[in-house]
Design goal:
By secondary structure, this protein is mainly β. It has 1 helix and 30 strands. Strand 25 and strand 26 form a beta hairpin. The two termini are about 40 Å apart.
């Protein structure tokens, strides 16, 4: 995740992807509508086999220019979160905001924290703060805070709320290495009774014990828990060499948590791996599928995972074989093994995937392609529903990573950043169970 390397490797990736995009631009009608509710008729776009999804746009009390929206669910609790920039006495400060989501829409926003007063946030399009429901009415939030003078010295801060976001605990740093390195790309998940587990990318191995730069720098994946009673467990290293700056994700199965991430071999194969918590300890990372994507830099394109009982689904982006693809694979044994991958995209994907599993063996995958946000239903036996266009989007970094989940009424909710405008939350007019394949 060394961001100096990231800037360089993203440039490399941009050139690679440009050479991969072999399909011509399709012509789709842009999303348009008033600020309150925008309805798109469900119809087939002329000249394509893509169906437009009928959605409504929900009101969010966020300032113009808000960005990096996220949607997280634990049981019936759903929280939308985002980042806002404000000017205070000539200084730009960043505020982490959140709001509960329910059947009636998005609630009143609350503020977790903000920069300023000597506290500086690390703000990045791919590594952004999130508010997470973790069960028992408890919320967790994380953000990235700069350390010393080094541009790429920053760490994770975590806080908890017991009252729906009205008040927050003092920030806590889950990593105790003290190195001036990068820590981020956090995933938080509920462990029951308000206890929280978390994983993050940890750059401590970019330094030696004496503080000098390592001759073999590598990013690692680490884990820790924070109990509702205030107790914490020791840090655990889950993988000692992974991709530098791809998002992690986690889900809870009936057998325990699973974590997915982009791995990295010495030969620069960067495929997706899964780690499981079994019999009180973590397994090593096991590939979800051997794509064999050899790439000399981080693609900044992490996986997404969802679970229901022992059923698990993982969605991801790969450029293996000089062909960009969005894929998904199912497991029926809590992530121990996965079936063959299913190709989701239309031939020209950017990636930035999200996945939801409203029923065991059935999933919804969203992704970006041709500057549009799409969603598609799939089943574990390989059946594909039609690709549904949700909204216009952008390939720009500023558009961030769209989020998606299925709410308690079986309607599908999307959150995205609209460049130079702000965040937008869309909800399908019909439950996914009523979608006509």
């Amino acid at each position: 995740m060394n961001m100096q390397q990231t800037s360089r490797t993203e440039s490399i990736l941009s050139q690679i992807v440009s050479s991969l995009l072999h399909c011509g631009k399709r012509r789709y009608r842009r999303f348009a509508g008033p600020a309150w509710v925008a309805v798109i008729a469900g119809c087939v776009v002329p000249g394509s086999d893509v169906t437009e999804l009928a959605v409504e746009e929900l009101v969010v009390e966020a300032v113009s220019g808000a960005r990096f929206a996220s949607l997280e669910r634990q049981g019936d609790a759903v929280v939308l979160s985002w980042l806002e920039a404000h000017m205070e006495e000539g200084e730009e400060v960043w505020a982490l905001k959140g709001a509960a989501y329910g059947d009636k829409g998005v609630g009143k926003p609350f503020e977790v924290t903000r920069s300023g007063g000597g506290v500086s946030f690390f703000v990045n399009w791919a590594d952004f703060p999130v508010v997470w429901p973790v069960g028992g009415g408890r919320l967790a939030a994380h953000w990235l805070q700069r350390g010393g003078a080094s541009t790429y010295d920053y760490g994770v801060r975590v806080a908890f709320s017991e009252d729906g976001g009205h008040s927050w605990s003092e920030p806590w740093t889950p990593h105790e290495d003290g190195t001036p390195s990068e820590h981020g790309f956090v995933s938080v998940f509920g462990l029951g009774h308000g206890d929280a587990g978390m994983v993050w990318l940890d750059g401590r191995r970019f330094f030696e014990a004496d503080g000098s730069r390592s001759t073999e720098p590598r990013m690692t994946l680490r884990y820790r828990t924070a109990g509702a009673d205030g107790t914490t467990t020791a840090e655990v290293e889950l993988d000692d060499r992974i991709c530098d700056c791809c998002q992690t994700d986690a889900a809870m199965t009936s057998e325990g948590p699973v974590v997915v991430y982009r791995d990295r071999t010495p030969e620069e194969v960067r495929d997706i791996s899964v780690g499981r918590f079994v019999d009180g300890k973590w397994t090593g990372g096991v590939p979800v599928h051997d794509d064999g994507w050899v790439i000399p830099g981080c693609p900044v394109n992490g996986p997404s995972v969802a679970a229901s009982g022992e059923a698990v689904v993982v969605a991801w982006f790969t450029g293996a074989g000089n062909t960009p693809r969005v894929r998904a694979a199912f497991s029926d044994d809590a992530g121990a093994t996965f079936g063959p991958p299913i190709t989701i995209d239309l031939g020209n994907p950017v990636g930035r995937v999200a996945v939801a599993m409203p029923q065991p063996g059935r999933a919804l995958v969203s992704w970006l392609e041709d500057e549009r946000l799409f969603v598609r239903g799939i089943t574990a036996d390989g059946n594909l529903g039609p690709a549904r266009q949700v909204a216009a989007s952008s390939n720009a970094r500023a558009s961030g990573f769209p989020a998606m989940l299925v709410d308690s009424t079986d309607r599908v909710v999307f959150a995205q950043t609209v460049v130079d405008q702000g965040i937008r939350v869309l909800r399908s007019q019909e439950p996914w169970t009523a979608w006509r394949d």
